[in-house]
Amino acid sequence: MSTELLAPLDLAFWHLETADHPMHLGALAHFSQPASGERDSTEILELLAARAAAIPRLRMRVRDVLLPVGGAAWAVDKEFDVRRHLSHVRLPAGEFAESAARLAGELMERPLERGLPPWEMYLLTGGPGDPFGVLVKLHHALADGMRAVAIGAGIFDEIAGVGAARSGRGVIGLLNGGRMTRPVPPRSWLPGPGQVAGLARGRIEELGRAVGVGASLVGASLARAGRLDPRGGAALSASSSGTRRLATAVLALDEVQEVRRVAGGTANDVLLATVAGALRRWMTERGDQLPPADPSALVPVSRRRPGSPPGSGNKLSAYLLRLPVSEPDPWTRLYAVRTGMDRNKAAGPLRGAGAVAVLADQLPPLAHRFGAPLAGNAARMLFDVLVTSVPLPRASLSLGGCPLRAIYPMAPLARGQSLAVAMSTYGGNVHVGLVADAKALPDVDRLAQATQAELADLLTLVR
């Protein structure tokens, strides 16, 4: 893996970034000290350094190439030094979770250095006996949610029953529920007549889908432009400042599943309805006028096939979902979310305005390079908030024998966006990470509390 062209969507993410709007995602993991005795911070830092250095993808940086024009490639950083990517920050003793979240928000403001492999890792420690945290930042060109999990798994200890987490096969097998895919036999590079016809048909189908997505995108943007009203939903429509704030919440998975069993649909439907209700509750409590039109959520969908290698580029599409914030009844909100998601799934992830990411595959590299500013400014015309779920292994994870207790995913904010909500399930809980523009949403902690209150209301209805 000495040189590898950036996939079209990776290239788009790379060029979408500006100093004020970095395009990295992240995760804040909390660990408790093992029963056998407290681990020294120096020892943990050395362990992180050794394991990060052993992951080939983390030794790659982005460099421009002559061909294709406007393109870029991953190349091994010949001067790679893992110490340039690792930092240790000591937090005040006590209230570790609050201090770690505050610092994580500030660190997420800072762009990654583009001349180096685009990632950073921070060890956050408190007083003696306190838990510790690890904050990971990965450029979106380097990883989507699935690849981030595969890369991050290389940092954890070996996962029982699967083998070394640093093995790509072990990680992908774990994400597939332990089912290993059969290796694909090598094919000749020279296609036969049947393959040529198949490739032509596939290309025509791709172009047809792209035209359909483009038409849906234009239609959705025009319709949304007519609905935008600065009098309502002031926080979500505020100007971007480039500042960041992280708030976290924990939801009990068995409570989410209890609501799902009665309401039908999926656990993700329940979580999306919880976000919608939390937004309504939060806007009302802060005195905001509810928006005249319900806000639109971009809900990412992975297009990565089971068993695909982690280095095969971002594979994303998305659904657009109207969050029923104007609806006062929690049960009706949940039904509206379920109906909207069922409609999206019936159409498929490659149709509709939410599938804008698939257009990246149809554009030449030069278009990504020069069209990025226009595309970055267009996000505000498409959706109000990003809501994503990040899959995690079901096994218990640890670092140097220290058990992982919580992991809060953090999604990037597009230009013109004030809020991104990411959720991951681990250890019987759903961990919610809310990344907000710190000036637009200084009270995002109250929104995090509202998610817990909203799930409690749904639970009351089904009991």
Automatic annotation (TrEMBL):
Listed EC numbers: 2.3.1.20
Pathway entry: Lipid metabolism; Glycerolipid metabolism; triacylglycerol biosynthesis
Family: Belongs to the long-chain O-acyltransferase family.
Protein name: Diacylglycerol O-acyltransferase
Phylogenetic lineage: Bacteria, Bacillati, Actinomycetota, Actinomycetes, Kitasatosporales
Annotated transmembrane regions: none
UniProt xrefs under InterPro entries: Acyl_transf_WS/DGAT, O-acyltransferase_WSD1-like, O-acyltransferase_WSD1_C, O-acyltransferase_WSD1_N
Pfam families: WS_DGAT_C, WS_DGAT_cat
UniProt KW Lipid biosynthesis keyword: yes
